[in-house]
Design goal:
364 residues; alpha/beta; Enolase-like, domain 1; TIM Barrel; 2 domains; ten-stranded mixed β-sheet; three-stranded antiparallel β-sheet; 13 helices
């Protein structure tokens, strides 16, 4: 089997109601999508936070056997393509391999530990509303009513906003629902510690990305100071970027994003490094239906660590924000039922792409 063509799509979905995290306001959702076509009539789909240059694709992907995924990964890396661009190619190669072997992707990764994954609702952004507290409380209650047993709220807007609203949401949802917060790197170390000590009173599952993504010393300081699990690393783009963060155990939980860190091939190396250093892995997911499917297969194979009677939950980040490229791109969309998501069972990623939706949101 040979790769005959690689098509790239720069996509953008304009959101109807902008929303903000601690660093930026989102007015559009932009993603890079790749379609790899082979001479066997099998095509694969991938997604990346960026797209590799056409020259890198033509020199290192076209004409190759898709089963040579390690060789292709190394060639693209040597050509200077970063992990977010390699990811799109790599995920599409794994999709092709699964389809060629008529196996779901999780089977190629060693088999499924679970067929259903508990999801946590990611939402609770700051929006342009008269009363942020009322809006956040109502949104959080809607997730609980939908059956979610876990959710995550955006913080990083300063102590007054964060402490007040985290406490209000916790009171609204009660103590039985897992509740995490995410600052999206909006704080310096001292501020993260000061705000974190107050938010910790609201029984938080984890405090995500309190400071800059590569500040290993800062994460160690925050982790020592706070009685909350510290998580992050969704922005790191290959195993070398993760190495110190994992080896020094600067985070309790690392959250590699398969479409940023370098694809499935690189994610497996990062997970192996984390496992060897007793660092928990919970993948980040904030993309299209392709990223959601790839993340589901990785979560299906993620073993409980440790294998306890009541293990720490293996959680899927289930993006509840507006994004048609997540909800409409797949002809067979991946949806939660009472906060639980079934692992796709079809070959490869297990989804089929709606080309009309793809074309509708392709730009440039």
């Amino acid at each position: 089997m040979k790769i005959t063509e690689v098509k790239t799509y720069s996509t953008s979905y304009p959101v109807k109601e902008p929303f903000s995290n601690g660093m930026r306001t989102t007015r559009e959702r932009a993603f890079g999508i790749v379609e790899i076509i082979t001479d066997a009539g099998i095509s694969g789909w991938g997604e990346g936070a960026s797209l590799p240059a056409r020259r890198a694709i033509d020199n290192n992907v076209v004409g190759k056997n898709p089963f040579d995924y390690e060789l292709i990964w190394s060639a693209l890396n040597y050509a200077g393509v970063d992990g977010a661009g390699i990811a799109a190619i790599d995920i599409a190669l794994w999709d092709i391999m699964g389809k060629a072997l008529k196996q779901p992707l999780y089977a190629l990764l060693g088999g499924a530990v679970r067929q259903n994954v508990q999801a946590y609702a990611t939402g609770l952004f700051r929006r342009n509303v008269p009363d942020h507290t009322v809006a956040l409380v109502n949104e959080a209650k809607s997730y609980a009513d939908a059956g979610f047993k876990a959710m995550k709220m955006k913080v990083g807007f300063g102590p007054d906003y964060d402490i007040k609203n985290v406490a209000a949401v916790r009171r609204a949802i009660g103590d039985d629902i897992l509740f995490a917060v995410d600052a999206n790197c909006a704080y310096d170390c001292g501020s993260a510690i000061a705000v974190g000590k107050e938010m910790a009173k609201s029984n938080l599952l984890w405090f995500e990305e309190p400071i800059a993504p590569d500040d290993v010393e800062g994460y160690l300081e925050v982790k020592r100071a706070l009685n909350i699990r510290i998580s992050g690393a969704e922005q790191l783009r290959n195993r070398w970027a993760f190495r110190r963060m994992i080896q020094e155990r600067a985070m309790d939980i690392i959250q590699p994003d398969v479409c940023v860190c370098g694809g499935i091939t690189e994610y497996r190396k990062i997970h192996a490094m984390a496992s060897a250093n007793h660092v928990r892995v919970i993948p980040h997911m904030f993309g299209t239906a392709i990223r959601l499917a790839a993340s589901m297969h990785l979560l299906a194979t993620l073993p409980d660590q440790p294998r306890a009677h009541e293990p720490f939950p293996t959680l899927l980040e289930y993006d509840m924000s507006e994004n048609a490229l997540r909800t409409e791109l797949a002809l067979n969309p991946i949806v939660h039922k009472h906060g639980v998501v079934a692992v796709p069972q079809g070959p490869g990623l297990g989804i089929d792409i709606n080309r009309e939706v793809l074309q509708k949101y392709t730009v440039g």
